[in-house]
Amino acid sequence: MTAATKAPAPVPPAAEAADVPPRIGPRVHAPRLRALDGLRLVAALMVAGYHYGGRDGEIARAWGTSPKHQFPSLHEWFAYGCLGVQVFFVISGFVICMSGWGRTLRAFFASRASRLLPSYWAAVILVTAVFALPVVAYRAVSPSDALVNLTMLQQPLGVDRVLGVCWTLWAEVRFYALFALCIVLPGANRRRVILFCAGWTLAAAIAQTAHQPLLDVVLMPEYAPFFVGGVGLYLVHRDRRDAYAWGIVGVSWLLGQHYAVMRLWHAPNPDFFSYRTSYGIILVVTLGFLAVAAIALGWLGWANWRWLTVAGALTYPFYLVHEHLGWVAVEGYHRTLHIPSYATLPLTVVTMLVLAWLLNHFVEDRLAPRLRALLTTAR
To answer: CB 131: neighbour CB atoms within 10 A?
Structure first.
């Protein structure tokens, strides 16, 4: 969800056939996969729909009543929006494999850190400051916990989170670490990536049966199929006739839908907020895989509008701020200004997109290149 989405530079056929790491040198700027940018925004909007209308909790306090009453016919659909996270993970697997191919470990680290940290730091500071205002009724974390949040390690340390969505960043960081150690450090090639996907898939399945917390933290059985599936789809992007790549994608889809159903399905119960059917969960996961596959195969190359690049740039800061600051916006629009719920919802989304644009323009565009240059040249 957080990486640049450019198509790979061409690889010499002889080198690819021999499965040797590509020569490390200046990276060729290939055409951007703008459809992938658009898909990232779609996934982010799915998650926003879930946070604003597909669950109870603090958002019910913002609306004044449960979203079940605010959106009597739509809340069941919004409940499926949480699966946007799984779609993000598939996209991330694709993009991280693409961006890490041919990079040194230092360049890969600099790329990831400069992409993640500037907006993240700004979002943590912004949400902490807003929640500290006397007119905002939501609890702010302690100053000590807010400082720990700047490290992005609050999840394993058990510290209160400033951003509710940061648990997905902790999953992303662990994926980056595995990919960096197993692929980027020795040098990316097809054989090594295939072995990485197969090894991680098998190890994650073993971890599921071992019931060892450390293995669960490192191998992430519940999310590994989505990251691995995205990596497999990048191999398909490089060679659509690669049977091993298609095998990786197929197995990942089968395991991914299993974990999604296991986590999100429950028997019909009127006391629950909403009911997601197993068929609906499988359908959303399948559509996520199919969407990335269509991009990998070049079927969506016609979606090359420049505004999709802007959409992709806004996705990450939007994702960071939309939940907690969305509570404040919903309460202000709906309960203070008495704007109807059907208008408050899109108005809140637009407000968060405008805030995301400000973060992208004044934080990311200015700090990310400097941080990348600093980390690339530092010794």
So the answer is: 19
